[in-house]
Amino acid sequence: MTGMFFSVWDEKACQRVHDATLEVLAETGVDVLHDEARELLASAGARVEGTRVRIDSELVDEALASAPRAFTLNSRGGGSPLAIRDGERYFGTGSDCLFHRDLATGERRRVRNADIEGMAALCEKLPNIDFVMSMGLPDDVPMALDDVVPFAAMLAGTRKPFIITPRDGTVLPTILEMAALCGEANSFVVYSMPAPPLRHDFVAVDKLVVCARLGIPVLYGPAPHAGASAPSSVAAVTIVGNAEVLSGLVINQIANPGAPFIYGAYVYALSMRTSSEVYCSPEAYAGQFAQCDLARFYGLPSFGYGGITDSKMLDEQWSAESAITVILSALSRATLIHDVGYMESGMQSSYESIVLGEEFIAYARALLREVRVDDEALALDEIKAVGPGGNHLARPYTRTHHREFFDPKFLDKQVYDRWRNSGALTLRDRVHEKALALTQEPRAFELEPSVRQKLFEMAAKVRPEERTAVSAG
Amino acid sequence: MSDELYAKMAQTVIDGEAEEAAELARQGLAQGLPAADILDKGFVKGIEEVGDLFGKGEFFLPELVQGAEAMKAAVAVLGPELDKTKEGRRATGVAVAGTVAGDIHEIGKTIVCSMLSAAGFEVTDVGCDVAVEAFVQKVKEVKPDLLLLSALLTTTMPNQQKTIQALKHADLRDSVKVMIGGAPTTRAWADEIGADGYAEDAIEAVAAAKVLVGRGLRQE
Q1: Quick check: B201 and A98 CB within 8 A?
Q2: % of residues, chain B, pLDDT over 90
Q3: Per-residue pLDDT band at B65 (split at 50, 70, 90)
Q4: Which of A92, A96, A298, A347 gets the highest tally of CB atoms within 10 A of its CB?
Q5: A275 neighbourhood in chain B, CB within 8 Å
Q6: pTM to 2 decimal places
Q7: ipTM metric
Q8: CA distance A246 to chain B (A)
Q9: CB within 8 A of A231, min separation 6: which ones?
């Protein structure tokens, strides 16, 4: 619970938004397109009419009381576990981009499964990337397997914890087995997303229920869009998202009280000029601040995004937006901050954008470190010993502590001549070279070949019926 | 006198006032003005102005969508009268649009429907989670120039393909141009499943739709 963060809503404002959300849940309700979940809700006391479910405050209170405030997420060997609770701040990549910027050619092309493994292996080497997501929806894998085969690739690339986006709940037992085969079943969170406004589609709900029963942490992340699936007001989008999260939490906690749950919500906006999706905007971050305030108000771990750009290429917009969004997301104090490396509004991934994003995460971490006022930090003995006109460079204190300061790898700090003589490179050049070197050097982690083979075999057996249906069709 | 009324009609579309538009359409008919004139000299002028303002960046999607809604409200009043005339309704094209089976995401599709209406298409929006057979049935019934299939999920994209195949089996494939869209879809996917058209966003969708019905300039 140390360090700075930016808050937009105090306790009173959170209470008002919470009350407004309860009014929506009780009066308007939400659509739950999942028969079993509706039965669970009805037997718990929710008012069910067709697919519409109206939920009173008692049910929400119960769910908020039973959801854990903290839980741990393990790595599969290697790193220390992540403590998932308010006050911690972890960064990671995003999921399911359709396109990838080829590191060798710079070409924008469809994602391949090898890219997913490659980006995971890159993340294994980056100390400020704490968790990993797929960063791609591969084009060279049958559609029916495009969650579980990338999962095998991710396991082969890194030991860091995951947030994953399975197509449905049925595949989760296999995914648990695959993670266990690599040393730790409790090493991933499942991401589920309803279909706003105020609608929980079958797959979203199924993941909430199956995860609860299997004890898998679930992250419920609605994405209402201002002006499209919610009113054009940051507070109103937050209410719509909050209603979806809280009703999702109720379903999850009824299915298994105490199941680990992460509060995720966004404020997206539809571009009213182009009808495209806007990831990077001041409103998105005002919304992220508000939503993280709400999550803290509830005592739940939260979810945000940063290290992203809407730019299509590695240009000035890319570097500006990736810096701004890392800092803003860090200030929001979201527990898990994902999408590091996203380009083109989440449509494109690249090695370079992950590498640059990681530099800004190191920057944010240095910025938000507590400015301590204890004896060691005050260093009064040092100040007195060196005295007026002295020099601290030769002091052991300096040697001990100077490494705590941010040391940029890519933001150039050289004098002019040295910069010119070292090739007069741009930020983009330096990042590209580093990304290339990191991928060409030996991996930080190699999965045993027999385990690797077994993983891909397990993945290939999933959903045989759907596969034949698609290929025969 | 009637010029003033036509100008007011155009203004209701520019202001996005659907009830007002319907009311003025009724007034126009009550005054004995020809339905075709009410449309062309009144409301169409308004929607053209809306399109211009959007092009100039002064209007945004909500103004465009609400203009289209006002236009639709007026056409609903004028429809029966227009049907009696020799030319009938002269829509840019007739379109059926829906989100495919298993997918309940429909905002993108709804925006496309509005933009097509604004561009003069007669659009039947069949909603979301539309079964393959329901699309086939609707094509039989409406006989559209265009069928638009939306999918937001990679899990439901195959149902775009299945719908196109079902049209083939029902011997309807040649009677209608099929466009697909949705965030995870690509031009390559459109080609792979034998769709006639693809668009990345709603604005491009209108341009592509016009090309497919022979009312627009072919791009590329």
Answers
A1: no
A2: 54
A3: confident
A4: A92
A5: 61, 108, 111, 201-203
A6: 0.89
A7: 0.75
A8: 21
A9: A237, A240
Q: Where are the domains of chain A?
A: 375-404
Residue with the two structure tokens 């919500």: A265
What does CATH list as the number for B94-212? 3.40.50.280
Cβ contact A115:A102 at 8 Å: no
What is the architecture of the domain spanning B2-84? Orthogonal Bundle (1.10)
B-chain residues near A273 (CB < 8 A): 57, 60-61
A16-44 burial string, b = 16+ CB within 10 Å, else e? ebbebbbebbbeebbbbbbeebbebbeeb
Q: What pLDDT shows up at residue A105?
A: 97
CB contact under 8 A, B154 and A277: no
Residue A1: the pLDDT is: 41
Q: Calculate ∠ Cα B210-B213-B215, nearest 5°.
A: 50
Q: What is the 3-state secondary structure (H, E, C) of chain A?
A: CCCCCCCCCCHHHHHHHHHHHHHHHHHHCEEECCHHHHHHHHHHCCEEECCEEECCHHHHHHHHHHCCCEEEECCCCCCCCEEEECCCCEEECCCCCCEEECCCCCCEEECCHHHHHHHHHHHHHCCCCCEECCCCCCCCCCHHHCCHHHHHHHHHHCCCCEEECCCCCCCHHHHHHHHHHCCCCCCEEEEECCCCCCEECHHHHHHHHHHHHHCCCEEECCCCEECCCECCCHHHHHHHHHHHHHHHHHHHHHHCCCCCEEEECCCEEECCCCCCEECCCHHHHHHHHHHHHHHHHHCCCEEEECCCCCCCCCCHHHHHHHHHHHHHHHHHCCCEEECCCEEHHHCEEEHHHHHHHHHHHHHHHHHHCCCCCCHHHHCHHHHHHHCCCCCCCCCHHHHHHHHHCCCCCCCCCCCHHHHHHCCCCCHHHHHHHHHHHHHHCCCCCCCCHHHHHHHHHHHHCCCHHHHHHHHHC
